[in-house]
Amino acid sequence: MKPVLSVEETLRLEDLIEREGTSKAALMEHAGEAAAARVAQYKPQHVAVLVGFGNNGGDGWVAADILSHQGIAVDVVSPIEPNEIKSPIARHVARRTAGRDVRVIVGPSRDELVSILSEADVVLDAILGTGFTGAVRPPFSIWIPALNELGLPVVSVDVPSGLNAETGAVETVCVEATATVTLLAPKIGLYSGEGPEYAGEITCGQLYSHLDEVIGDVEHAAEIVEPADLVDYFPDLPSNVNKYSRGSVLVVAGSATYPGAAIMAAKAAARAGAGYVTVATPDACANLIRMALPCVPVVGVPSDSRGAFGAAAASAVRELAHKFDCVLCGPGMTVTAGGMQLVTELLRTDVPLVLDADALNCMSRLAIGGIEETPEVYRREAPLILTPHNKELSRLVGDEPVDDLGSAIEAAQKLVWAAGSDNLVVIAKGPSTAIVGVEKVLLPMSGPASLATAGSGDVLAGIVAANIAVSHGDIDCWELLCSYAVAVHSYAGHAAAALMGERSVIATDLIDVLGEAMNLTEREALRDAGIELGD
Ligand SMILES: NC(=O)C1=CN([C@@H]2O[C@H](COP(=O)(O)OP(=O)(O)OC[C@H]3O[C@@H](n4cnc5c(N)ncnc54)[C@H](OP(=O)(O)O)[C@@H]3O)[C@@H](O)[C@H]2O)[C@@H](O)CC1
Ligand SMILES: Nc1ncnc2c1ncn2[C@@H]1O[C@H](COP(=O)(O)OP(=O)(O)O)[C@@H](O)[C@H]1O
Ligand SMILES: [K+]
């Protein structure tokens, strides 16, 4: 796993490295080397380097010097003279570079800038980095749209200029990078908010050779799950299994209004490898679900007058629940008094439980002002996995705003820290999904935007439940098991987009390609771990 840092954590890491004997000036030299190496991959003859006033600009000045030493024509565009730069280390490298074989253009007009950029094969963006906040001010608010309009390859240093490195927010304008060389460790903003849209291909510049020895001494906002991290989490299929021993899932879901959600979750659980899936659903929609799922037993439990779970459903489901390796509750169930009783009852069982969709909304109604205020409601011995999207997560924490990766991680941490159990994991879903446990925040591979389609979350919930059932509790790290499930969902998004076209994917397509998605996840993980693949 690869650490992802907040801005504050990055600054602490720099200080720590400095105490170990490597100065910030030395880090800037290495940052410039990393940026120049990324630009050189394009084999350019002419490079334009846009620098700002701060240390991000310093990195750009160093890179410009290195590229010009490689025989590349380099134009450095700066808003001020090198002598006027406030940061002493950036001023030093700027003055040094300006005295060498580069052309320096200070404060060009928009037209002059466009004509300089038009001569370049690649642009290095070293305008703003981790020190940037708020809305981009002139002259950069003029430079950045001019650069974007040209559509040239752009390598950004640390983060694309205009992107808030902490939140991933873009207030006004931001460089649309082809590639970003982030420094020391990736910044959380590259994965949050609009980060993924602007950053292009992200690589990390190695600025310090003993990083592994010190990175553990600063907290990290999150860790990126690399394919090889998942090698221990593929579900086995030994030859001596039967349908029950493979892993059984009870899907408690559906209502007369939303029977489809139960159908998709159950089918996804079966396709993701559970040997025996059963649906418990209100009587009112049981027959419809039976017809849609010939391979799944469907148990009707008492409905209320609207065809949702009624008051007597809770005890009926409790009787069933303990026979299964995992219970998934929520898809399509709607929020009713019967549903709330059902969720309360399931939280009290000792069976691994996945709560999704309206089960989460029922749960948030069990407490006023945030469920984390009453952790005894959801603290339990058996694993509990919650799979909220931002709105559901916000309701769980008393309607505090959750609108990007950072706020989702914060809200999820409130829930897991209040319960204090390492069996509780929140899968905070969004364009980037975070898996939040009591000690770890993991960022598994994200899928394509094709996943933003109704029912896609029901499919993910089925995949998660199946993997818990198949594991039979033999799990070192629930966060990694959940990461495996999210990775399979993401690969399903890619596989379905390849088949159907990225705009046409619907949730049932994801279910149909789950087998292929599991194979892809496994193949990628083995390759990344350096394990030989058979034919
Ligand atoms: N991590 C590492 O290990 C290493 C990090 N290093 C590098 O340092 C970078 C951080 O440098 P930094 O702290 O100097 O900040 P930086 O991003 O250059 O921005 C500050 C400048 O931007 C300006 N500015 C601010 N807001 C603005 C706005 N809205 N609109 C317009 N301007 C705005 C602000 O102006 P001021 O507010 O002061 O007037 C100030 O001049 C980091 O990203 C990495 O590249 C490497 O060198 C070494 C190893
Ligand atoms: N823009 C996006 N890019 C990638 N994945 C996305 C995007 N938007 C949503 N997703 C994923 O799609 C799923 C949507 O889940 P959810 O909102 O619960 O859907 P539903 O309630 O309709 O089943 C989540 O797994 C989420 O991570
Ligand atoms: K930048």
UniProtKB/TrEMBL annotation:
Signal peptide: none
Occurrences of domain YjeF C-terminal (ranges): 226-521
The enzyme's E.C. designation: 4.2.1.136, 5.1.99.6
Domain of life where this protein originates: Bacteria
Keywords: ATP-binding, Isomerase, Lyase, Metal-binding, Multifunctional enzyme, NAD, NADP, Nucleotide-binding, Potassium
Cofactor binding description: Binds 1 potassium ion per subunit.
This protein's name: Bifunctional NAD(P)H-hydrate repair enzyme
Residues where (6S)-NADPHX binds: 55-59, 129-135, 158, 261, 332, 389, 458
InterPro entries given in the database record: Carbohydrate_kinase_pred_CS, CARKD, Nnr, Ribokinase-like, YjeF_N_dom, YjeF_N_dom_sf
Purpose: Bifunctional enzyme that catalyzes the epimerization of the S- and R-forms of NAD(P)HX and the dehydration of the S-form of NAD(P)HX at the expense of ADP, which is converted to AMP. This allows the repair of both epimers of NAD(P)HX, a damaged form of NAD(P)H that is a result of enzymatic or heat-dependent hydration. Catalyzes the dehydration of the S-form of NAD(P)HX at the expense of ADP, which is converted to AMP. Together with NAD(P)HX epimerase, which catalyzes the epimerization of the S- and R-forms, the enzyme allows the repair of both epimers of NAD(P)HX, a damaged form of NAD(P)H that is a result of enzymatic or heat-dependent hydration.
Catalytic activity reported: (6R)-NADPHX = (6S)-NADPHX; (6S)-NADPHX + ADP = AMP + phosphate + NADPH + H(+); (6S)-NADHX + ADP = AMP + phosphate + NADH + H(+); (6R)-NADHX = (6S)-NADHX
GO terms of biological process kind: metabolite repair; nicotinamide nucleotide metabolic process
Molecular function via GO: ADP-dependent NAD(P)H-hydrate dehydratase activity; ATP binding; metal ion binding; NAD(P)HX epimerase activity
